[in-house]
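Why run this: before we spend reagent on co-expression, it is cheaper to look at a predicted model of the complex and decide which construct boundaries make sense. The entries below are exactly what would go into the expression plan.
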Amino acid sequence: MSVAEARELDRADPLAPIRARFAIPRDGAGRDLVYFCGNSLGLQPTAAADAVDREMRVWRELAVAGHFRGPQPWVRYEEPLRENMAQLIGAHADEVAIMNALTVNLHLLLASFYRPSGRRTKIVIEAHAFPSDRYAVAGQARWHGLDPDETIVELAAERGTPEEALEELLSTRGDEVALVLLPGIQYATGTRYDEFEVVNAARRAGCMVGLDLAHAAGNVPVRLHESQCDFAVWCTYKYLCGGPGSTGGAFVHRRHHGSDVVRLAGWFGNAESTRFEMRAQQDPAAGAGAWVVSNPAVLSTAPLAASLAIFAEVGMEKIREKSVRLTGFLESLINQELGESVRIVTPDEPRRRGAQLSLQVRGGRDQGRRVFAALENAGVIGDWREPDFIRLAPSPLYNTYSECVRCVEAMQQAL
Ligand SMILES: *Cc1c(COP(=O)(O)O)cnc(C)c1O
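The model came back. Tokens follow.
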């Protein structure tokens, strides 16, 4: 296999030095694991522990005064992160809120933007959507007194692209649909949805449209503002390396700012200038800030600050450039060496995917489990998704071309 070629690519990789800014997990013998699981939990930036420790020190030394004093006052702890986050998803900083976790944010924004009325009650989601998203929309349907089975319409793309399937669905049933909620990248197959095509189709049909960017944020460049999408949510512990349970993100398009849309409000959605006057009537913060409910989870946001600094320094353009090459390299090795026994489910066009490749081993689920176990034994960390997917996601920030070779060698031996 092309060990020499991989070494050469690693030597020429302009992002190679960035790997040292992350803690690479090791096996019992002290050898670096091949960590291809950044689509599930990104690795720890080496600066993250200091970022958390700094806030622990403020708490120790200043206690309650840390809300207003210290290096980064807690009352506006996430404010400086909004600009970096906005860059990654193509938004204005005032369209972004950094708060809660993904599913909580989804509920908050569904409360505002899923307003079933008359014939328009249905919610379109993709078939085999991530369970949490499905539970959230089912719960919202029930909350409005609707039957989830009749309310949720699953978009299946048996042939063609998901965008074409959406177009077709909305051309016949668009006037029954209140909301389209689709992924930036589908978690199981790794298929990227074009935000412009999705939003255009939804808006032509008069529906609200939200995007779940769990697998897209920090993975592929997204242009939320320009796409005209109504809202979006994402988590920050996957490609964004914010740490387990790190604070999530939410986007609300500028055209909804200052509108009288219903919000499930809280005191941190009050403008900071009047928040502590403790008024009976909320004085909403500007922009997406009006959707914030609670005070910032400082200790779950500090590691994200460390990680976003790396993203800002390197820039999404360079990250994506390496990602396309690295995933393309892994793909070509798999096709060359394992083509007979492994099928890549993820689309082969780079613009239709991010870092992740989802594989199915021919011969069925048991054979797939065997290959997956062999990967683990060889120190290659991917993940398994039912019914029979092995997901491998080389991260452009900390993975190498040589690791792709190690991964494919391990699969080759198992087969
Ligand atoms: C990872 C992921 C989630 C996780 O939700 P949390 O609220 O952060 O636990 C939800 N939806 C999708 C599509 C995901 O990929």
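The pocket of pyridoxal-5'-phosphate is lined by residues 101-103, 130, 132-133, 183, 187, 212, 214-215, 235 (CB under 6 Å). The first strand starts at residue 34 and ends at 35. Bring this page to Monday's planning discussion.
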